[in-house]
Amino acid sequence: MGRSWCVVIACLIVLFSSVISCHFDEQAVSLPVGFPPLLISENNPYTLAKQELGKRLFFDKNISIDSSVACSNCHLADYAYSDTLALSNGVKGGITDRNSPSLIYSGFSPLINKDGGVVKLDIQALIPIEDHNEMGIHILSLAKRLQSDSTYNKQFIEAFDREPDAFTIPRALAHHIRFLPSPTSKYDNFIAGNEDALTTLEHRGMGLFLSDKLKCGSCHSPPLFTTHEFANNGLYDTYDDLGRTLISADSTDIGKFRIPSLRNASLTGPYMHDGSLGTLEDVVEHYASGGSQHINKDKRIGGFNISEQEEEELLAFLNALTDLEPKE
Ligand code: HEC
Ligand code: HEC
Predict the structure, then answer these.
(1) CB–CB of 236/292 below 8 Å?
(2) pLDDT in tens, 155-188
(3) Is the CB of 113 under 6 A from ligand 1?
(4) Minimal CB count within 10 Å: which of 78, 137, 187, 292?
(5) Probe residue for ligand 1, chosen from 74, 169, 173, 241 as the CB with the greatest number of ligand atoms within 8 Å
């Protein structure tokens, strides 16, 4: 009798814990086979309480100095968390120095921002919060503001066991971003074994993308469509924005920017660090021309001949990298 009770209790424990873990996976993120792991900080693992808090903060204009700009002003869910402008508008007429990127796959990047100047996602939000061209509020003033809102205070205590402060605010925001990935593009369906997921046009475009002639895949390598390296892709002869050099102080890094993921590229234009190329057609023409003669230009950017038909195929493939079921 005693033993069978033990068995029942053991079964209940197993059942209960598997329910909890299913719930966890569903809420967090499910990645296809072959994907690298998400970079999750030890002190910031997934919880539902943090998810709700991070999302609330991300869409809240009240976290900027004059309550006019939310993170979502420049990172719109409809555009894969980028926006449609070359440079974006922050508080008090401020304009950003760079083009607003998609954030959906930022959780995989070993270094954050186009120059890699931020060492982890968990602290990145301190920059837009304090930047005069973005949200323009001191983190300690923001912490006070949120502490005086009893609903926020309660949520922070639930999520982190401490009040809104310079530690918890950026970590809640990073948590929202980190768990956004939803690799559900036609390309992902194709890789998962559905051979019909790509049309003939898209499939040919994939071949071109990965070919030695175009070399796109050597920098934008699957599955994230980036190697995370810094490269000079030949945009300019002289760079107003020095890129990686601003961090490394090394002149061989002038004009090098973090290679961006091309997932959802159809939604993230205009393109490049300064939004100077309006469309994916413009981007392909840039690479076909071979770009500038800058001394740091990567050897893989040498120009190529591409027929109209091939260009159509390549563009079709880039468009097949759009997540079909993005997370909210
Ligand atoms: C006024 C527009 C604007 C606002 C507001 C803004 N951002 Fe950004 N964001 C940008 C721009 C521009 C960049 C590119 C910066 C760079 O790479 O140097 C960026 C970059 C990022 C990155 C780096 C992504 C990567 O993969 O390198 C993250 C993460 C991010 N923003 C999160 C946020 C969060 C969280 C908020 C709100 C606290 C926010 N942003 C508010 C414009 C904005
Ligand atoms: C030497 C490495 C390298 C190669 C090869 C390369 N790229 Fe890039 N690509 C980059 C870098 C670096 C950037 C970012 C430049 C910047 O921010 O100014 C970039 C940016 C882009 C962007 C803009 C993404 C965005 O969000 O702004 C697209 C689209 C793109 N590349 C497509 C391609 C295609 C298509 C090919 C092949 C024809 C290709 N790339 C070949 C390094 C490379």
Answers:
(1) yes
(2) 999 999 999 999 999 999 999 999 999 999 999 9
(3) yes
(4) 78
(5) 74
